[in-house]
Amino acid sequence: MTVPPPIVAPSILAADFARLAEEVRAVEDAADWLHVDVMDNHFVPNLTIGLPVVQSLRAVTAMPFDVHLMIEDPRRWAPGYADAGAYNVTFHAEASDDPVALAKDLRSAGAKAGLAIDRDTPIEPYLDLLPSFDTLLIMTIKAGFGGQRFIPQLLEKVRTARQHVSAGHLELRIEVDGGIAADTIEQAAAAGADAFVAGTAVYGAADPAEAVRHLRALAERAAPGA
Ligand code: DX5
Ligand code: ZN
């Protein structure tokens, strides 16, 4: 089983929102993607940031943006993030009645398309849809808040997805999000994840760039076949 080199995506949800540009620059050279958590106080109870913040950030860094939409009605809002220059736009399976159609919209707007699976959602009904996607985000917590404890049982979904991706020779990143830190990233990598979101573990560290490098090294070592 070959898994591509790992992507580490710091989540700015754990950054200081009053100094966002500086916080982005702190990880710019070390990280692969910048993970942006958009929450609408409807799909999840929390409320974070939206399109104007993404547009402003786009002007201050060349980092690829990995936008994670935890919102209702993604068909209405998601393409705007692609137009704003997001590299990857991920929306939730639970919020969409036609995920494949929205994936097409995102790709024609020039972005990668991502499908997110929340804690209580099984992966099996979505496996056949994966050829329409570039990223599969498997939550390792219940979506909505940073700083929660990683749920190792959810890695079963990562194993299932990795087998499916390998067997079908799909080009798809398998991303994990929630509670990823130095003490959890290796099990996620061993299960077959190849993109790792980390909020608290990066922005809670004294040296965020160093934290990213350390996470990547751990993920590389634990990857299947490494
Ligand atoms: C939560 C968000 C996560 C969050 C992760 O719903 O999707 O991206 O920022 O935060 P940590 O790494 O602190 O669990
Ligand atoms: Zn996220």
From TrEMBL:
Q: Which InterPro entries match?
A: Aldolase_TIM (IPR013785), Ribul_P_3_epim (IPR026019), Ribul_P_3_epim-like (IPR000056), RibuloseP-bd_barrel (IPR011060)
Q: What is its EC number?
A: 5.1.3.1
Instruction: Provide this UniProt record's keywords sorted from A to Z.
Output: Carbohydrate metabolism, Isomerase, Metal-binding
Q: What does this protein do?
A: Catalyzes the reversible epimerization of D-ribulose 5-phosphate to D-xylulose 5-phosphate.
Which organism's genome codes for this protein? Micromonospora trifolii
The entry lists its GO molecular-function terms as: D-ribulose-phosphate 3-epimerase activity
List, separated by semicolons, the cofactors it needs.
Mn(2+); Co(2+); Zn(2+); Fe(2+)
| Active site residues according to the UniProt entry | 37, 177
Lineage, top-rank taxon, reads Bacteria
Gene for this chain: rpe
- Please list the residues that bind a divalent metal cation: 35, 37, 68, 177
Q: Which leading EC class covers this enzyme?
A: isomerase
| Family of the protein in this entry | Belongs to the ribulose-phosphate 3-epimerase family.
State the pathway, as annotated in the record.
Carbohydrate degradation
Binding-site residues for substrate, renumbered to this chain = 11, 68, 144-147, 177-179
What's the record's note on cofactor binding? Binds 1 divalent metal cation per subunit.
**Which protein are we looking at?**
Ribulose-phosphate 3-epimerase
